[in-house]
Amino acid sequence: MARSIVVIKYNAGNIRSVLCTLNRLGLDAEVTSDASRIRNASRVIFPGVGEASTAMRHLIASGLDELMASLTQPFLGICLGMQLMCRFSEEYDTKCLGIFDLPVIRFPSSSLKVPHMGWNRLKQIDQETCRLLTETGWAYFVHSYYVPLCEHSVALCTYGDITFSAALSRDNFTGFQFHPEKSGKYGMAMLERFIGQGEL
Amino acid sequence: MLAKRIIPCLDVRNGRTVKGVNFINLRDAGDAVELAAFYAAHGADELTFLDITATIEQRGTFTSLVRSVADVIDIPFTVGGGIRTVSDVGALLESGADKISINSAAVRNKSLIGELAREFGSQCVVCAIDIRSNSTFDSELGFGWEVYVDGGRTPTGMEALAWAREAVDRGAGEILLTSMDHDGTKKGFAIDITKRISTHVSVPIIASGGAGTMEHFAEILTEGCADAALAASLFHFREIDIEELKIFLKNRGISIRLT
């Protein structure tokens, strides 16, 4: 079966970087909000740069919220995409998709510079659960909210005195808090494994 | 641990890098995309492109450059220069830029930062602040630095720390602080004011202006409390190699990403 990749289209910014990275891997992706195109894709990428409540409003208005939680193919949420896969975000007290039953919490700007912006190290990678992550390395993060450690954490990262979930995984769902499309060769290899998983 | 960032800055006019570039292994030293790819592959943590195109008619070349850069670069990049409106920013982000920087427009139109932060998120709004020391701006916190606009030509009567704080309150996610007094001198960054601003605002600070030696980078990233350091011709002329610089900084105990 030919692999078809869709990138979910909603109001999130900078989808282009994900597409460019896929292009560098020799892959084309379709950017769509069409439910049947998404349901029939073999890989789904849920990007996200922006703000949680606005993003959820768009997703709910288009019915994508219920669709996404019901998908069974490999699904990757990136940055805000990962946060929206959780139950609730403190960003404007937003109810999210609930794929991961977790809260998304704001970094305390009293003790840390917010956003957490720049290159930080992934550590304690659970390769058994998430085969997209094969080694520790430097990944690029830009976020003001984080998911605490939990049973679904498959990679951790530490900012100041807070250790948070750098990646989440459950069944077909994976979330990356960092931007693999901006994390050099390290991140590109993860996207390549995501596209190739199970069929290579 | 979050790494301190090293950021080369490329000045671009009509889609090409200006300021001499001294890379013998580039086919076309004026080709901004080729230079960007070189830096991305050789240790730069992030790139900044500053459009110094003179006329509005030629601005289109910058947007197409941004698209070409996004095609080949796998690290984050910021673009700035001449940005005035929300739609300017929309076009640049759509073209693949991760962040935009605004300077004079943010001073002249104080509501712009807030509008951009609400529309696109604070994480992509960099407020660039050019400063010169001026003893009439001495205050308990300010240390006597005045904000300039129009590429450092026009004094604003605003004190540097106050403006930095206001920019952050309005929604800037990062500050690019350039000391015009230090820029081009190669005598080191403006450590005191950078530290002062970095420790009084809650967003990352990129220090710019004055880099001449590897030691200068170590100073600004430790004593100066900068989160990132930016330089242009020093890197373009290969007076300092970024990979060597990063090894030097790491050996000094600074958190640095080595690839």
CATH architecture grouping of chain B: Alpha-Beta Barrel
Largest sheet of chain B: 8 strands, parallel, barrel
**Oligomeric organization of the protein chains:** heterodimer
CATH superfamily of chain B: Aldolase class I
Mean model confidence by pLDDT of chain A: 91
The top level CATH class name of chain A: Alpha Beta
Tell me the number of helical segments of chain A per DSSP (H or I, 4 or more residues long).
6
Shape summary of chain B: globular
Using the CA coordinates, give the radius of gyration of chain B: 17 Å
In total, the number of domains of chain A comes to: 1
Give the H and E element order of chain B: EEHEHEHEHHEEEHEHEHEHH
| Count of beta strands of chain A | 13
| Helix run count of chain B | 10
User: How large a portion of the residues of chain B is in β-strands, by DSSP E?
Assistant: 15-25%
The number of domains of chain B is 1
Q: Note the beta-strand portion of chain A.
A: 25-35%
Strand adjacency order, main sheet of chain B = 1-3-4-5-6-9-10-11
Structural shape of chain A = globular
| Helix/strand structural class of chain B | alpha/beta
Low-confidence stretches of chain B: none
Any idea of the CATH class of chain B?
Alpha Beta
